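Example 3.2
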Amino acid sequence: MTFFQALLIGLFAYLGSKRTPWFFGVTGGWNMIGRPLVAGLIIGLILGDVPNGVIAGAMVQALFIGQITPGGAMPADVNWAAYIGIPLALAAGGTGEQAVALSVPLSMLGLGLFNFIMTINAYFPHMADKAAEKGDGAGIHRATYLAAVPSFVLRAGSAMLICYLGTPVAEMLINSMPEGVLHFFEVAGKMLPAIGFAMLLKQSLAKQWMLVLFLLGWIMIGATSMSVTALAVFATAVAIVFVMAQGEARVPVTAPVESVEEDDCYEE
């Protein structure tokens, strides 16, 4: 991996990190560029290996597909998992299985970096408050933009350095690993995405019987030649019918209101 490639990966790692104000904020950054599936495409374009980049991104995405960030709290840092795990595996000649295996410990280390950045950024709201007390509008803007500096330096810098300096180390480790260890990573890399889907199912299934719908889709894919796109369209139709049926069942049936005749006779 060249220095320029590592620099580009570091730049996109910053743009796809949480709390980055650029590129449409959280919508275009964390929820789009920061997703492993999109990151795999970007990394594949940078490294010149788009097919393996997309495959590795899809496998890492499956691992974290059930992760949510309530109130900004992150159980794992997907950014490091995507923008360091995927390029290290691809540049070292590995596959998507190795990318998944690397992404797990990297996501834990990245979480520590995220908390460290948030600790540093806690200083800048106080700077803006002091500027607001003085009526200094420019000082408020200055504090806002300065808050992006630690994230850029630490996010982009860490991803760039680890990818550039860590590629030879990762390549040496992969080439020197025994066949049994590589087979273990291959098996683990295929099993870990199942954990992500299990987390997603646990959050999505409002009732236990809905698991039958998931099993139905799995059987249709395995027993027929139906494509994933066709299955998605079929599942969408089933979901629409189910929602409409549930809505009709919940419409309250009101008893007919008997008309009350007004008495025109009033006593004075």
